[in-house]
Specification:
Elements (H helix, E strand, L loop, with lengths): L2 H5 L3 H12 L16 H16 L3 E5 L3 E6 L5 E7 L17 E3 L2 E3 L7 H17 L6 E7 L7 H9 L5 E4 L2 E2 L3 E4 L1 E9 L6 E4 L9 E7 L5 H9 L5 E7 L2 E7 L14 H11 L5 H9 L14 E2 L2 E2 L1 E10 L2 E10 L5 H8 L4 E2 L2 E8 L3 E2 L5 H14 L7 E3 L11 E3 L2 E2 L13 E3 H20 L1
Helix pairs in contact: 2-3, 2-4, 4-11, 6-7, 7-8, 10-11
């Protein structure tokens, strides 16, 4: 019997369990006693461990930082690191983001693809491996993290209190596998002098700013010129309204992950562009356009660089006004062959002038595994064997995953090439067929790692 013949009859059962996870708004929130990342992540973890226990796996809750489900025996541990926390739902959904909704061959809900669906797919892969009768001379441990989206402190806690992972994967990237992850750099752009009365937009730093509200003095620009400049931008929609002596711009962009900002439309950046082109004379608008702009390539900070695995990307995620100062978050993903020292050196002379300043918050190192290593080859072979796809090869990405926190693992799945599941956007979705294939691939991946 083909393995898929065993997987398909489990579909309704898998979707029921996925719905149990999706119901929790597991966005990071204020910590409470015994809940380091807030009530939502703790509740989702409890549910995830409950599901795993119902399936017969040994479960451990590590103080609500993370938890795990395990099977097998031995000193070596095959690790699968998925996460239950999510980014905020945002606006514009066609369904309730916290109710798993099925429409034909698709399901919708926040987390179905990032990364609650992968938790369910991994549990059922473990179930199939256990039922296959293959000797479990290594332990297979599914980690369920609660802080991947906002710092991965859950895996830091695991490293401090848990056993080391021998080899494995995190199903929080792309098939057919990711052997390199770009370095990350967080910055803040600060205004010094500005006539903008307020500018606020975005919902997380690691996504393209999808909405932005800007208020300026009405006398500072010709309204018709500003409207014409806004119409020339790629913004899907905008409104420009006058209220007495002020003009308010409501710009609607398109969200995308910070690692692929070119796939989105930045509402803040194109508002700035329109203001400048309409003749709005302002120090901070000029500074922003010179140092950030709309190109997403870091050129304004001296960081337009690339290597054989990819180019640097830059994203403005959040804009906010506090005490008369405008602050913008910058999320940079830089090539795997560069170092944090390279980023500091290249940007050093581009961080400040009389119109504004850029503050470097933190620079993280890239991740790189030899693409010919047994780990990368073993996982790729699982993908190739199940799908028959020999065209696509393991890759380098701009996103950061648990692979940077857990030595010995790489990102593997759960998103398929050329699929857009609207991760970090409204109407996040998952194909039921893709869920079934994920289970098949993860099952084979575990089997390959048990042999290695």
């Amino acid at each position: 019997m083909k393995r898929m013949d065993k997987i398909k009859p489990l579909t309704d059962e898998m979707l029921e369990k996925l719905g149990r996870l999706v119901q929790y708004n597991s966005v990071y929130s204020q910590s409470k006693p015994g809940m380091p990342f807030g009530e939502g992540p703790a509740a989702a973890l409890a549910e995830g461990l409950k599901i795993a226990g119902e399936m017969g796996f040994h479960t451990v809750n590590m103080d609500n930082y993370c938890g795990y489900a395990e099977m097998g025996q031995g000193q070596e541990i095959i690790g699968i690191a998925a996460h239950l926390d999510i980014v905020p739902a945002g606006e514009g959904w066609d369904t309730d983001p916290f109710t798993l909704t099925r429409k034909g061959d698709m399901v919708y809900g926040r987390g179905v693809s990032d990364d609650k669906g992968a938790v369910i797919a991994s549990l059922y892969a473990m179930k199939l491996v256990r039922e296959s009768g293959v000797p479990l001379n290594k332990r297979v441990r599914l980690l369920m993290g609660c802080n991947e989206e906002t710092g991965s402190r859950c895996m830091q806690y695991y490293n401090e209190h848990g056993e080391p992972i021998t080899a494995g994967f995190t199903p929080d990237g792309y098939f057919p596998g990711i052997f390199g992850e770009k370095g990350s750099c967080g910055m803040l752009v600060h205004s010094k002098n500005t006539r903008i009365l307020s500018m606020n937009g975005g919902f997380v730093s690691n996504a393209v700013c999808n909405r932005c509200t800007t208020v300026i003095p009405a006398a500072s620009v010709e309204e018709d010129a500003l409207r014409a400049a806004l119409e020339k931008t790629p913004l899907p929609s905008f409104s420009l309204t006058r209220d007495g002596e002020t003009l308010t711009i409501e710009a609607v962009g398109t969200a995308a992950h910070a690692s692929t900002p070119h796939l989105g439309v930045n509402a803040a950046s194109y508002t700035m562009q329109a203001l400048q082109q309409a003749g709005f004379r302002d120090d901070f608008v000029d500074f922003y356009m010179d140092h950030v702009g709309t190109a997403c390539d870091g050129s304004g900070l001296g960081l337009k660089v690339e290597d054989q695995y990819g180019a640097l990307t830059l994203n403005n995620g959040i804009v906010k006004t506090e005490n008369g100062e405008i602050v913008c978050t910058i999320d940079i993903r830089y090539p795997v062959t560069l170092t944090p020292e390279d980023i500091r050196r290249l940007s050093r002379d581009h961080l400040e002038d009389e119109k504004g300043r850029v503050e470097i918050l933190k620079i993280g190192t890239p991740l790189f595994h030899d693409p010919d290593s047994p780990l990368v080859r073993g996982l790729y072979e699982a993908y190739r064997e199940v799908t028959g796809d020999e065209t696509r090869k393991p890759m380098v990405i701009g996103g950061g995953t648990y692979a940077k926190s857990l030595p010995g693992i790489i990102a593997f799945g759960c998103e398929f090439p050329d699929k857009d599941n609207h991760i970090h956007d409204k109407n996040e979705s998952l194909s039921i067929e893709d869920l079934q294939i994920q289970v098949d691939i993860f099952t084979q991946a575990i089997l390959n790692l048990l042999k290695s």
